[in-house]
Amino acid sequence: MAFQILFITEGDAIHPAAEIQFDHQRLCIVRFSPAGAPELEFVQDLYVGGDVAMIFPFEEFMDTLRIALDDLVAWRQNLEELDR
């Protein structure tokens, strides 16, 4: 599979996010809004030299997105339990 998921934290506090890469090129970041709703930010940058064709199987992308979101939900729940 050409997709990879990197789990990261953002900001001063621990805010979990998942960066989805396609063929080692950053594609998008999945995070939660302050209200708790999932957000998807598509990114464009020169993360990797050279051209990467950003054409990929839709279902494979959706499966990767579901995995990232499920894991972020679990991560956030674990953080909430630690704060109790």
Automatic annotation (TrEMBL):
UniProt name for this protein: Uncharacterized protein
